[in-house]
Amino acid sequence: MPCSRRSLSQFRELLDGKAEPFRTGAAAKPRSPNSMGVLLKIDSAETIGRILDECRTIAVVGLSSDPHRPSHGVASYMQRHGYRVIPVNPNETEVFGDRAYPSLWDVPEQIDLVDIFRRSDEAGKAVDEAIAVGAKAVWLQEGVIDHAAAQRALDAGLLVVMDRCWLKEHVRR
User: Fold this and answer.
1) Of the four listed, 35, 63, 94, 119, which is most buried by Cβ atoms within 10 Å?
2) In the chain, alpha helices (H)
3) Is 127 left (phi over 0), alpha (psi -120 to 50) or beta?
4) Confidence class of residue 1 from pLDDT cuts 50, 70 and 90?
5) Which domains, and CATH codes, for the chain?
6) Going by C-beta distance under 8 Å and a sequence separation of 6 or more, which residues neighbour residue 89?
7) Can you tell me the distance from the alpha carbon of 140 to that of 169, in angstroms, rounded to the nearest whole number?
8) Across the strands, what pairs with 138?
9) Beta-bridge partners for 139
């Protein structure tokens, strides 16, 4: 997927204050069009369809081992429908019998989608990590809204969905 992503070292320099921040708005480099030559918009039916069809390895940020938490229910559904789920939560060691990673930086395999179950004010950090590790898409779950982070992801060439439930969208198809 063609896009302008920062390297891991560049992103760490950004976090340490040694690099320029991501540019958004008119000064930002326009993101690459998809394979059909059109720009996909946040939350569009085409974007949702591509994510559900193409993103098979999903890192779930904020995944809980508590079966009463929404993240647990959605991720369990994902697994039952053939998706590979990678738990990302510094407060967990294992979810669904799989190792939980403290951050996206620690995941040792390629991630297609980063599904974010975090408060809106913490979502931007997960989006920036998703961009840095080369994810193809980010999904901010229902109630998780960060327009600036969504725009950064879009500008970096990622597919973006915000304030929607992955499970509800999958069932709708």
Assistant:
1) 63
2) 8-15, 45-54, 70-80, 120-133, 147-155, 166-172
3) alpha
4) very low
5) 8-172 (3.40.50.720)
6) 61, 62, 63, 64, 95, 100, 101, 102
7) 13
8) 114, 160
9) 115, 161
51-101 pLDDT per residue, tens: 999 999 999 999 999 999 999 999 999 999 999 999 999 999 999 999 999
Give the H/E segment covering residue 133: helix 120-133
Whether 108 contacts 57, CB under 8 Å: no
Strand order in the sheet with 159-162: 84-88, 57-61, 113-116, 137-140, 159-162
Cβ proximity of 32 and 3 under 8 Å: yes
3-state secondary structure of 7: coil
Provide the token pair at 85. 């789920």
3: Cα separation from own chain's centroid:
15
What are the structure tokens assigned to 82, written together? 């053939």
Beta bridge partners of 99: 94
166 secondary structure, DSSP code: H
What b/e readout covers 86-103, taking b as 16+ CB neighbours within 10 angstroms? bbbbeebeebeeeebbee
The H or E element that residue 20 is part of is none
pLDDT at 41: 84
